[in-house]
Amino acid sequence: MSTKAAVAAAGVLHVVATPIGNLGDLSPRAAQVLGSVAAICAEDTRHTRQLLAQIGVSTPLLALHEHNEEALAPRLVERLRAGESLALVSDAGTPLVSDPGFRLVRAAREAGIRVSPVPGPCALVAALSVAGLPSDRFVFEGFAPAKAAARREWLAALAGEPRTLIFYESAHRIHAMLADAAAAFGGDRRAVVARELTKLFETVLDGTLDALVARVGSDADQRRGEFVVVVEGAGEDGAARLAEGRRVYALLAAELRPSLAAKLAAEITGAPRKALYGG
Tens of pLDDT along 66-92? Predict the structure, then answer.
């Protein structure tokens, strides 16, 4: 069989978006694909089995997660080459967005296998759509580092980003992450905390970072569930201010201790002190 004929005879890898909470958000096409493929590659087969049961589908499931994806991808590509079509899903939302699947998709594409999206729910897009912050240019940064020092350094490096910033965060770190963001970006930066989107207890809080730190810290209910944090970008003026702050800090730090140099540079330029020096 020629290479072209082999590719034509191969199956399709469908990348299928699933609900982030509300089952009604599963598209009819997604349900049809999940019921028609030879197998479904799922991040957590137990979670996906519950979804399939609710839509009356009994397609076999294969566990595909960060620990086995690299080893399993070649075997799945062979199945695709043999003519089987497969579906790839994550626990919720669009696969590969802070979820496994990249290695399988890349391997399939490198093998000439057709990879077809079945679009649908995505938590970051859902949050952005209701945030009321600029949406013409944005950057998705995923989950912040778990350890406080690394998180603060990471956020400080983003302080001058002019585009709207989008983060995912867990319940047990949401308050600390917001407090660190306020320190890095300035407490008056506008932001939105979207919690449990499409679910029963969905809330979308907006305000300054300082106000959101206080609100989330004072209400235990706002520290439960899954979170998307959307933060206004620094804007071109903010980015320029940060660049100037870092220039001044570098000059002052040559003669002064770093903490004092950062304090003075922040006062001179208006740049966030935490973005100049992590101490």
Answer: 999 999 999 999 999 999 999 999 999
Percentages helix, strand, coil for the chain (3-state, rounded to 5) are 45, 20, 35
* Residue closest to 34 by CA, chosen among 115, 73, 107, 88: 88
Residue 42 CA, chain-centre distance (Å), reads 18
Structure tokens at 157: 């490096």
Give me the percent of the chain exceeding a pLDDT of 70. 96
Q: Are 176 and 229 in contact (CB under 8 A)?
A: no
Per-residue model confidence as pLDDT tens digits over 15-42:
999 999 999 999 999 999 999 999 999 9
Please count the CA atoms within 13 angstroms of the CA of 101 that sit on its side-chain side. Answer: 25
Q: What span, in angstroms and rounded, lies between the C-alpha atoms of 110 and 162?
A: 35
Location of structure tokens 């079945």: 118
Q: Structure tokens of 147? A: 């350890």
Gap between the Cα atoms of 219 and 194, Å rounded: 15
Q: Give phi and psi for 181, each to the nearest 5.
A: -65, -40
Nearest to 122 by CA among 145, 100, 90: 90
**What's the pLDDT at 270?**
83
Kindly report the pTM of this predicted structure.
0.85
CA dist list (Å): 55 to 18, 23, 48, 93, 213: 12, 9, 11, 17, 40
Query: Which DSSP category does 221 fall into?
Result: G
Give the residue carrying structure tokens 């086995």. Answer: 68
Gyration radius from the chain CA atoms: 23
Structure letter (DSSP) for residue 95:
T
